[in-house]
Amino acid sequence: MRAEIGRAVSLLVALACLVMARFFGSGEAFHLTIAVVVLPLGCIWYGNEIGGFVGMSANGEGGVGNVVGVLITVAGWTVLFTMLAIIVFFALGRSR
Fold it and tell me: 46 with 53: CB under 8 angstroms?
């Protein structure tokens, strides 16, 4: 349940980035925003799965995957909110 809420909120933030880039930026800014938003969404949505990957030859012992998964998810949120802040900064500067 908690993961679904996180996914929904991250999707809303990504959509806000895309809408603001579309209306306050150029076509290039919109396409760049699409490219940049995809990676953080993947990290947020599948951070635990990415962190749980230990390699083909490892035996999978230990709980390091959970910690790495949380760090990947936090990094995704950080990049996503940074992207939103940058877009808002430029949108407010352009509207004046």
Answer: no
